[in-house]
Design brief:
This protein is α+β, with helices and mostly antiparallel strands. The protein has helices at 6-29, 50-60, 76-83, 91-107, 116-125, 153-172, 174-179, 184-206, 211-231, 237-258, 265-270, 278-282, 284-289, 315-323, 329-336, 364-380, 414-434, 437-450, 465-479; strands spanning 69-72, 131-134, 139-142, 307-312, 339-349, 352-361, 388-392, 395-401. The chain is 55% helix and 11% strand.
Amino acid sequence: MARLTARRRASVAVALVVALGALSVGAWALGEWKPFAHPSAEPSWPANIAPLARYVEDTTRVRFSAHVNVEFIADAQRFLDRVTNDDGPSAAALANSATDEAVGRALGFWSGEPHLADSAHLLRTSGDTGVEWLPEEHVVVVRAKDEKAELSPIDRADLVMVLTEIADDQHYQLNERMDRAPTPQDFQVLAGLAIGEALWVLDRYTSRFDNDEAEVYRADRSSRGKEFNDAVTSVNLTFRSLRVASQTVGTAFVAALHRSSDGRAMQHAFTSAVPAAIDQMTMPVHKYGQRDPLEHVEPPAVPAGGEYLYTRQMGPFGVHLLLAGGVPPRDALEAADGWGNDSFIAYQLEGRVCTDARIVADDKAAADRIEHGLKAWAATRPAASQALVGRDDTTLLLSVCDPGAKAAQPTLDAAASDQFLDRADLLRDRVSATGQPVLSECIAVRFYRDHAAADLRGANPDVNPFEAIDTIGYDCVSSV
C-alpha cells in the first residue's frame, strides 16, 4: 500500500503520533528522570523525614539501599530557583517537535501550530510544590527551614510519594530501565508502574489523616491543582492526555494488583511479569492476568523518494484517539481494545511530513472494528492529507500526510481521551470500593462500552450513572 507521494507519510503518522507525542516530546519532558548511580552508604534521614521513610518501607516492603540527601530551603523563591534548572527545550527537542506537530496534524489530533516542545516544558515546570526530587544530584529538596520544621500534610504526602519512587528505583532500577526502553509501550508501562505505586502509597498515607489534617490537605491539593490547570490552559488537550495516560492507567493497575491474592504481585509486575503494553494495564484481569501477548508487526517501508525520520509505536491509547477521529469514543474504545501491536514511520516526501502505519489486531473481529473506525477517520481528513486505509488479514494499513498548519480540519475534543482514561479511573474506584478486581474490571469495561464518559458526570438526563453502575454490577456478579 506504500505510495510514492507525500500523502503516504502522513498516513503512518496518524496512528503513531500519539506515542510520538508521548515518547518523542514526552521523553524529553521527562528527561530529568534519568538513571543515576546510588551512593553506597547506609541510609539515614533527618528527623522530620525519617517517619515518612519508614512508612514507605513498611507499606511497600521495599528497603532503601542507599543514602538519599535531603536539602531544606525555607525561602519560596530560593526553593524555586534551586529546583527549576531548565533553560527550556533544546534545539533537538524543537526540531523533533516540528515533525511531531506535522504528524499530529496528519492524524487529526490537532490543527495549526501546537508548539509541543514549549507545551512539554510548560507541563513540566508549572505548578507549586514543596518537595522536589533531583535524581541527577541524588537529592530531595524540601521547602522548610530544617529537619526540626513541622511539615504540612500536603508536603508530607508528597514526600511519601517521592520517597516511594526513590525506593522502587533503587530496588528495581526503574530509571535505568526506562532510559533503555526499546518501545514507547515499554517506557509507558514502567512509568505507569512507578507512578501508580507511588500514588497508591500516597493514598494509603493520606487515609490516615485526622479530620483537620484531611481538610487542610484537600484544600491545599485543590488549590495547587487549580494553579496548575490555569497555567497549562494553552496546552492542547490531546497532547495533555498523552502525557497522563500511563499515570492514569498505571494507578488503576497497581490498585488492582494490590488486591490480588498474590501478595508479591507488584514485585512480579516490576520484575518477572512486566506488562507488555498499557492495554494489559487497562484490563489487569483479562489482558494481564491471562497474558494477552503482543502480535508481531513489521514497520512500514519508506516509499521511494522519501527521507526517513523515525519509527514509533502508537499503542492502544494512540489507536483509540485515532479511531475517535472517525467514530464515537465508545466505538473507538471497543475497537482499540482489540489492539495487538503497531508500528509507524514518519518520513518526508515532496516537502511534506507523512506517516505510514501498520496496526495488528488481536483477531478478525477486532480487525473489523478497527478497519471500520479507520475508514471513518480517513473520510474526515482534509483532501490535502490524502489519507489511505488498507487491510491485509488482521493487519490494518494507513497512510496520511500533514495538510499544513493553515488547513481547516476537525480535531479531537476531551470526550475522546476521557472515554479511555475515565474507564481506568472507574476501575480504580471500584477496586477501592469492592476489593474485587474481577468484578471491578467487568463493571468498568461494560459501563464504558455502553455509555459515554460524560454520562458518569451526569451530563445525560436519561442516564443515572449510579443506577447504571449498580445494574451492571449485578450482571457482572452473576457472570464473573
